Amino acid sequence: MRVVITRPAGDAQAWVDALQAAGHQTLALPLIDVGPATHTQPVVQAWAQWSNFQAVMFVSAQAVRYFFERQPAATMWTNCPRCWATGPGTHKALLQAGVPEACIDSPAADAAQFDSEALWQRVSTQVQAGKPVLIVRGHDVNGGLAMVSDAPSIASSSTAQVGTGRDWLAQQLQAAGVLAQFVVAYERRAPVWSAEQKTQACEAAVNGSVWCFSSSQAIQNLEHILPTQSWAKARCIATHPRIAQTAQGLGLGEIHMSKPSLTDVLVSLESLA
Length: 273
What we know:
Elements: E1 2-5, H1 9-21, E2 25-28, E3 33-36, H2 41-48, E4 55-58, H3 61-68, E5 82-85, H4 88-96, E6 104-105, H5 116-123, E7 133-140, E8 155-156, H6 164-175, E9 180-189, H7 195-204, E10 210-213, H8 216-225, E11 235-238, H9 241-250, E12 254-257, H10 262-272
Parallel strand pairs: 1-2, 1-10, 4-5, 4-7, 5-6, 7-9, 10-11, 11-12
Antiparallel strand pairs: 3-9, 8-9
Helix pairs in contact: 3-4, 8-9
């Protein structure tokens, strides 16, 4: 089966290799460019306040990687904040960053979906009123869902502009008497595609390829890159209902749901063969 991987370039190769090993013809067309935040002082400031947080929630594996790039050498894991992850990829990134398993909270492996709502079901009983929770996230340079204040400081939930899932989590924290604070650890941009990549994408829109989408922003970037392309004959796998909704808005003719793990995506692909 022909499969298009749209993850950022730093994440795509592992997926390409695994899918090719499973016998699929795989093409990487990254739809999000990821890099460190322009302003790094807020992350340094967050590390300086590390012990003041009862928990630090990471919105993605990229949030973990770029936040931990600024980790002080003497970080201790005794009396440390809990580290919250919305899914298995973020959980794995925390382990790779050196966070002990005992310090991580994330949805159960058999959870119906991996998002802020599922995470809240896991952690809601442990939050303590009066002690802040830090949410580590990205900034969308193109002005989309991940945007927060440009001010080089940690933002509170009253000043940050946040995406749907993070906004919902901040509301739950506020209702529990907990201040949610936000810090930008990385920036996301729409990619600049070559003429060859655009040609490959147009072909994949009509030749039966299955597009794998793990981000609504990726679909929005695709629409921006190829504004006149019809997607009525295209097929895709979306890893969250909100992503599927965005794909529907683009006009994809066939949309299938899967959990975001590689194993689950492989099972979904087999069902489409």
